[in-house]
Specification:
Strand content: under 5%
Helix content: 55-70%
Structural class: mainly alpha
Strand order of the largest sheet: 1-2
Number of helices: 23
Distance between the termini: 42 Å
Shape: globular
Number of strands: 4
Largest sheet: 2 strands, antiparallel
Number of domains: 3
Order of helices and strands: HHHHHHHHHHHHHHHHHHHHHHEEEEH
């Protein structure tokens, strides 16, 4: 129980730190504190999370991510939060997650429910890591981040260490190395809670006054409402809750970006304006999502283009707004690409786009090989990429495996097809009233999802690389159907329709929850479980560099550094006395070989 309480306090501290940085960032960017008044509190926490992640990545160029580099940043954010709180005039009913003045019993119930959910999630996140890639390279990448500044050519030691996901910097920051070391259990669980809080906050006014559902376009409330069951499903089923895996965070980010995007579209529908604070938050989160997983590039890029079109069409000073909207994206991606170049010579590793042939660069043929393995493994695992790529022989076994993913692929796709067909069958009236644009806008929200799925299919079509795309596909079709129905039925009939669609659209999740009802009890009752350890061999490269290699298998887990399952005899340090100087596999020139032999440098 003490471990759960400690985690809850950590959640609270992170919320305060991220909120402080988020609000400070928006105030600095907009030069107007009043523009943050109508921004949901959870949006500000997300903004602070993304902004501090950018700070950590920049700091990591020069320092390891440990308690000495992370602590000041988090405490400054908490101080900002306290300062903003003291300057805010409290409402008569006090501060709460929901705007307005809900009853005392409602506030008590909400707080108790959130504490109960957070406690359960904290205990579940302490379970052992059950994610293969975490043992393969996630934990090792985090350990490098904790112990060293950004190491040039780290991809030469282990190709996957060059994947450059900003998520590992986030987990490393939560480790508070060398004091804590359990950031892996806090990382995804905290973001699950933040996503739930975001969806509930967007639904808050509709929960207080259900009649508003009948008076407001579905685009304002249907998206968060129909996303909530999937977040609960991920919390119950995903092995990323207790593992430092970026897959779960990538899906949560997609959901959050999508609801921010839909909120912007709703504002455009209501008063033909694009709030600068919301567009700024969207830009920062979209850029961060790309740095977490490159598979988000099509989804986020399409959203940015659509919002840019809205800005140029409706903003009072479109050029100024557009430049400031794009600036966070440019800064975040610039830092990301520079980090990629340092790690491997490829800014978008394993893509060869922009590859730089430097001393520490991973050889181009190795980068290409890594890329081909990513593409082929997603199509047909365990078969060499030369047999997979270049033909369509992989399609049939791939299709059979995808059809087996009923809950997260087949059923959402079926919901999308059925709801889309029904939406086309229901006439979409275009009278000049407040609902006149919602049919068009409900179609626009489909665009980034469809583009993302096309990109997914053409690159790495493994279901997990689709992130939340199939779920959002179903949700967007439901929004479109409800938008058309609302224009054609009475208010009493609308309530019935909402209830029926909600139940039918979540039948797969209800069936899964019933079949796996024991999952709720699968939590840790004795604190954090230890990370796996594997027996290691010590091998020496031709330059005298000592490297740890697993005795069997390809998982290093949290092994001492440097560790790799792929031993390379030609691997060496750029400076034999300094690990932070980086790795290279390029042969020494003759005069360099002589100098090294005379100096007798051997890394130990």
């Amino acid at each position: 129980m003490n471990y759960v309480i400690l985690t809850l306090l950590f959640y609270a501290f992170l919320t305060a730190a991220y909120f402080g940085w988020g609000k400070a960032f928006i105030i600095a960017a907009t030069r107007n504190e009043s523009r943050t008044e109508n921004v949901p509190l959870s949006f500000l926490v997300w903004t602070g999370w993304a902004f501090t992640l950018l700070l950590f990545q920049f700091v990591h160029f020069f320092l390891p991510i440990n308690i000495y580099s992370v602590g000041p940043i988090l405490f400054i954010g908490a101080a900002f939060s306290l300062a903003f709180l003291l300057r805010t005039r409290p409402a008569r009913c006090g501060l709460s997650l929901f705007t307005g003045c809900p009853s005392r019993y409602a506030v008590t119930g909400i707080v108790f429910g959130l504490l109960l959910a957070a406690s359960w999630l904290a205990a579940r996140a302490m379970l052992p890591i059950d994610n293969y890639d975490s043992g393969l390279y996630h934990l090792n990448a985090i350990r490098w981040t904790n112990e060293y500044p950004l190491v040039p050519g780290l991809g030469n030691l282990h190709g996957r260490l060059a994947f450059n996901s900003s998520f590992f910097t986030y987990v490393a920051a939560l480790n508070l190395h060398p004091l804590f070391g359990n950031g892996r259990s806090v990382a995804n669980s905290f973001l699950i809670l933040l996503t739930v809080a975001t969806l509930l906050e967007l639904l808050s006014r509709f929960l207080r006054r259900p009649s508003l559902v009948l008076q407001s376009p579905p685009i304002q409330w249907a998206t968060p409402l129909f996303c909530l069951p999937y977040i609960a499903y991920w919390a119950l089923s995903s092995n990323g809750v207790s593992a430092p895996s970026p897959d779960l965070t990538s899906s949560l980010l997609q959901v959050t970006i999508f609801v921010v995007f839909v909120r912007l579209l709703a504002r455009i529908m209501e008063d033909r304006t694009v709030p600068f604070s919301d567009s700024l938050i969207l830009s920062l989160l979209a850029a961060t999502a790309i740095t977490v997983k490159l598979s988000n590039v099509a989804f986020c890029g399409t959203i940015m283009v659509l919002v840019m079109f809205g800005i140029l069409s409706t903003a009072r000073r479109p050029l100024n707004h557009a430049v400031r909207f794009v600036l966070p994206l440019v800064v975040v991606l610039m830092v990301f690409c520079v980090r990629g170049i340092v790690l491997s010579g490829a800014p978008l590793y394993p893509s060869t786009i922009g590859y730089i042939n430097a001393e520490w660069s991973v050889p181009l043929k190795h980068v290409t090989n890594e890329r081909n393995w990513v593409y082929s493994w997603a199509r047909q695992p365990k078969i060499h990429w030369e047999q997979v790529l270049g033909s369509w022989a992989w399609f049939e076994p791939w299709f059979q495996s995808v059809v087996g993913r009923t809950i997260d692929v087949v059923f959402p796709l079926a919901v999308f097809l059925v709801c889309s067909a029904l939406a086309l069958a229901v006439p979409c009236r275009l009278e000049r009233n407040r609902f006149s644009r919602q049919c068009l806008l409900s179609g626009i929200i489909l665009t980034p999802i469809l583009v993302a799925l096309v990109f997914w299919f053409l690159t790495a079509p493994a279901p997990r690389f689709a992130n939340a795309s199939f779920m959002l596909l179903a949700v967007s079709a439901i929004v479109s159907l409800l938008s058309n129905i609302q224009l054609n039925v009475s208010r009493r009939g609308m309530f019935t329709v909402i209830c029926i669609i909600f139940v039918v659209a979540n039948l797969n999740l209800l069936y899964w929850a019933f079949s796996h009802r024991w999952t709720v009890t699968h939590v840790s009752v004795d604190g954090w479980h230890k990370v796996n350890r594997v027996p290691l061999n010590e091998k020496v490269t031709s330059s005298g560099l000592r490297v740890y290699v697993p005795v069997s298998g390809d998982q290093c887990w949290d092994a001492p550094l440097p560790c790799t399952p792929y031993f390379h005899k030609g691997l060496r340090l750029r400076d034999p006395d300094n690990v932070a100087s980086g790795f290279t596999v390029r042969p020494l020139e003759n005069n360099e070989k002589i100098a090294e032999q005379e100096s007798g440098h051997v890394y130990k």
